[in-house]
Amino acid sequence: MTYLSDDFLLHSKRARDLFHGYAEPMPILDYHSHLSPRAIAEDATFPTITKLWLGEDHYKWRAMRAEGIEETYITGKAGDREKFEMWARTVSRACGSPVYDWAHLELKRYFGIADLLSPKTAPDIFAKCNERLQDPGFSARNLLRKMNVKTVCTTDDPVDDLRFHRQLRTEGFEISVLPSFRPEKLLKIDNTDPFNRYCDQLSSVSGITIASFADFLDAVDKRHAYFHEQGCRSADIALETVPSAEQFSSSEIDTIFSQVRGGKTVSGDQRDKFVSALLLELCRMNHRRGWVQQFHLGVLRNPRTRLFSSVGPDAGVDCIGDFSQGRPLTRFLDALDRDDHLSKTILYNINPRDNDLFACIAGSFSDGSFPGKIQYGPAWWFADGYHGIVQNIRTLCTTGLLNRHIGMTTDSRSLLSFVRHEYFRRILCNILGNDVENGDIPGDMTMIGALVSDICFDNARNYFGFDFPPFQAPKEKHDFAMVR
């Protein structure tokens, strides 16, 4: 079998049957991305493959630095051709990395190029891609269409006016591009001046004068309601760990907020109390409006000061953190659950040591109100390579129910990243197909195929409550016999 053949990563007949018959036809629902809604609304085009491929993809930047490429060829002022050549050099030495697989899947699926990228092939691939990018079929919207994307959820600040989401809906764009509520800046009270400037922005867009913590919550809730009106059904919360502060009074939070609004700094204990109080209120808003809340936990962000100063955040230097997660997370979820205010929740861990922990916590807070209410999220960031996806699936099989898994998400800023759904689906089908062949699970391919279809698309559709009919794959592709 050759690399990137039709049966790439599919190591048995049953794996191939499952992928080609069930997973491959399914559309894509990407419930967490960092795509630009403006680029989609304006149907952006790209003059070169470098702009499209390397412009904001920190996975690629990280690999290039590991190869010893100078920053000028990564985020610096070097020309597009030179940057592409350095990327080709990196890829040629990255065999075995998920970045290597994704890069070649992207070339093949979007551009029809099956050649391996290397310094030798780089000039020809650069020219071919740039030529094809001149075709209107390679605009932002058409790139989504090309990959059979049904829904994309972006990541949006509470003060955003969401005008590009409104534009897309008004124009009747057939792919749902929905906002997600990302309250990151609301939580950063330890940076007093930026926080106060942000409060002023919040006050302006909400029309509420913010003189107290109660005013602050009213303004946040007003924005939360506005996001709901614009189709938002998800909040995304990124933290090192959920704060462990448990005991605080309303008056204490009022005092802390007033202190910050007065320009004074807060202690670590005060910060944790404030973040705990605000998170609880945000989660109650999510529950009240029936939203899904996603917790991305454990990232150690911006550890390299020099690069952060020159390039800024999200530059490809964040890393896995070794924070203690279990006790504060369970206490926080329990605080919501005690009053029946725990909404549907997805828990993402970045440290693989926490796989079993997060999957077990998800099972502990399921309550029968909705299938798979608390989700152990898909393999994320540093864990979304081949082995990380396998570990994620196997962990869920052990501690939960695989049939309730809500599938893959890209968590990406790149319009070419949707091949990661195919990558996940191939690995999923390979695991299940091999298990059937080995006699480790039943050989009812209709049953296993339905499980694959659910994981690839239908579970996420039902979980988020997106309003479009279930996808129906061609019936003739579901006609497999049971293994004898």
Summarize this structure briefly:
With 484 residues, this protein is an alpha/beta fold. The protein has 19 helices and 9 strands.
Overall pLDDT level: 94
Going by CATH, the homologous superfamily of the largest domain would be Metal-dependent hydrolases
Give the percentage of residues in beta strands: 5-15%
What's the SSE pattern? Answer: HEHHHHHHHEHEHHEHHEEHEHEHEHHH
Kindly describe this structure.
With 484 residues, the chain is of the alpha/beta class. The protein folds into two domains: 45-138, uronate isomerase, domain 2, chain A, CATH 1.10.2020; 153-478, TIM Barrel (Alpha-Beta Barrel), CATH 3.20.20. The protein contains 19 helices and nine strands. It is globular, with a radius of gyration of 23 Å. The relative contact order is 0.14.
Q: What does the secondary structure layout of this molecule look like, with pairings?
A:
Layout: H1 13-23, E1 28-30, H2 37-41, H3 49-54, H4 58-66, H5 80-92, H6 98-111, H7 122-133, H8 140-146, E2 149-153, H9 163-171, E3 176-178, H10 192-206, H11 213-229, E4 234-239, H12 250-261, H13 268-288, E5 292-297, E6 299-300, H14 305-311, E7 319-320, H15 326-338, E8 344-349, H16 355-364, E9 374-376, H17 386-399, H18 419-437, H19 445-464
Parallel strand pairs: 1-2, 2-3, 4-5, 5-8, 8-9
Antiparallel strand pairs: 6-7
